[in-house]
Prior knowledge:
The protein is of the alpha+beta class and 104 residues long. Helix content is 15%, strand content 43%.
Amino acid sequence: MYNSGDVVVVTAKLSEFGEEKKRLAVVLYEEFNNVVVAGITANPYAKGIPLPKKEGVQMDSTVKLNYVFTVSEDMLSKPLFRLSRERKKVVFGELMKLLSGMQV
């Protein structure tokens, strides 16, 4: 079972014909063996929420809320670390802003 704020390694195909890749992601939500995650990148130019080394990543990174996807539990590693309470509030606060601005 995964908890929101867990940082995991995801092994997934990023496109239909692409190769499998491993990448860091933060768990947003888990239910019925499906896990919704937001990708994490070390690209210093990526837009998103800063994730500094002090949180547990090997290098300063960014949580990309524009890169949210669902995977099955078997595509994830066990949690590497958990976001601090403060960083988790920032991630979910920004996610709520994005979702509340959507037109229905």
